[in-house]
Amino acid sequence: MKRFLLALLIVLLSFSLFAQGATETKPEEIRVMLANHPYGDLLKEKIPEFEAEYGIKVNYEQLQESQLSQALATEFATASSTVDVFMTRPLQEGLMFIKNNWYSSLADYDFADYPQSTVDIGTKNGVPYIVPLVTEWQVLYYRKDLFKAAGISVPKTFDELKAAAAKLTTKDVAGFGSRGKGAAAVTQMSSYVYNFGGRYIQNGEAVFDSPEAIKAIRFYGEMLGNYGPQGVTSMSWENLMPVFQAGKLAMWTDASVFYGQIIDPEKTAIPKENIGIADLPAGPVDDSPFLVVSWGMAIANTSTHKDAAMKFITWATSQELALEGIKNNITMASNSAWKGASGLMNEELIATQAHAAANGYPYDRPFVTSVGAARDLIGEVIIESINTKGTSTKLEALAKEKVAAVNELLKTDGEYHNLPY
Amino acid sequence: MVSKKNPLKTILFYLLIIIILIPIVFPFIWMLMSSFKTQVDIISWPPKFIFKPTLNNYKRVFVEQHFLAYLKNSTIVAVFAVGLSLLLGLPAAYAIARNNMDKTSMFILVARLLPGISFLMPWYIIFSRLKLMDSYVALILSHMLIALPLIIWTMVPYFKSIPMEMDESAMIDGATRTRSFVSIILPLAGPGIVTATTLSFIYSWNNFMFSQVLSRQKTRTLPIAVYNFLSYVEVAWGAVMAAAVAIILPAIIITMIFQKYVIKGLTAGAVKG
Fold first, then answer.
1. Do the domain assignments include residue B41?
2. Strand pairing partners for A35?
3. Are A269 and B40 inside 8 Å of each other by CB?
4. Residue ranges making up the domain that contains B189
5. Of A125, A163, A374, B11, which shows the fewest CB atoms inside 10 Å?
6. Helix (H, G, I), strand (E, B) or coil at A331
7. CB–CB of B44 and A36 under 8 A?
8. Is A37 exposed, middle or buried (0-12, 13-18, 19+ CB in 10 A)?
9. Domain range for residue A215?
10. Could you tell me how many CB contacts below 8 A there are between chain A and chain B?
11. B18 lies in some domain
């Protein structure tokens, strides 16, 4: 028995040894949460320079985006956070974080270098909370060699897009691809809805059952149903990109962030010179692709090192680093970054940015607190449309049903007829 | 009389084995192959079975992402969680078996049947108040929630299958209850203990949910670290596969070493003798 107790004692003692390591704190240390995003990678590389210049130690963690959101939400919700600065997705979590008072006010930050619409996304009652970091907009990736072989030019309208897809679809290669997996497809279908003159949400009310939106949903379903790769209704970008990289897709509409990936010779079977990037074709009513702030940076309201955090965020969003980002094909949010972009980045990509910046719409999803649930609901309508190649007779009724469900969500969150757009 | 084997039967036998093995082994082979492929080879269609192998994925896993640190974390957590669970679980199971404490064992099972996620929020709050977030203590305690009931429930029928007369004769010879448990019953229960250890080790090794919430940079375990290869713009399949190999390999080796005990242990409690 004695021996038994002794063993127990030893184990318990060794436990307390482990426990001590967690409590030590030093002044002027900040904890920064980065995303697994190319800009997060860039910051990670540059952080030693910041530490040397400001004498502030940065403890950073880099997490996959959904893990990051979850980790932040858990820490903030349980009031146990030690996070000072973090990368955040304004459209995905911004409203919820603002509502819960998890962001610290950035009224002292100089936002002059950012387009107003990108700052507005993270502003409530005149108080800005998020520094825009990276923007993305919808583009058309296409195969120059296949276009040349088929003797067609880059489509400028949806009609031309359909004709091109029909011509490029062969036994081996799908003519057209875009996200088809329910909720994930919502963002990439948004520009189609806008170009047909529709909206997901308008005046604080779900309106994706309008005749314009229905036309767009039918068109999207028709394109993917007829010319999309097999199994497209279970495909998001992580499935479509490899299909494109393997040379099995002639056209792909998705966010501009993937350009760096699809031209990387280590990841793509297609030579760089055969890959083109162009504006999303115009629709019958509008030519307004989404241009959104996909990532921003914020200071935690519970931060106990707000001065150091402010120094970090100012450094991390500086013009010099933004230009570094541009060099790495990262589509930065600041105006000055794009003024200096020529020569550092692919010119076609720069041209699509200029087009989207001039004409774009700043939301790619229903920008509401319950965005996840709303995306799931819209996703069901998209799947129905793709499965029937856009011909479903039930589509209007289904959309109406889902609109009612989204409106219920808005009412629950107190956002019904109470949104800034 | 010497029976001659029918060669056709032998061929059919092995053919059957191969057919059964393919669906089981193929994903592993695929994973192993992909871990040596470049991204271009992984996505190529039709799939390539002959390719120029690369070690870049493993380099990315072990050099760039410091998988050895995560390997260390996983090992510490699993070893301590299983070790402590054995320390508490074996005497508990023995007591339950010898005193027919069925209600107690039912109670322990209920703790196991509750979805693990229901424990997480209270744990999170408690551990963060105690400043034990990102500590091995938090992870080990949480993993014990899986290991302890598993060990108790594997061991109760095993101890029951060892005749009471063993204890009695030891005690007649002057041994205390503890002595007879440690010196007589435990060695007899060897295969059962190995089974319980292996299974609970694997559960802890593969656990995602508890480690995901309770660990941060310092104590992050292997299954969480795989997420490092899923980024906003890319899924690095090759590196994911290499990481999967690095995670599975220790589990496979341990299982192979203990395999014969495991099977003996799994069936031993089934028939009393």
1. no
2. A63
3. yes
4. 54-268
5. A125
6. coil
7. no
8. buried
9. 136-290+363-412
10. 95
11. no
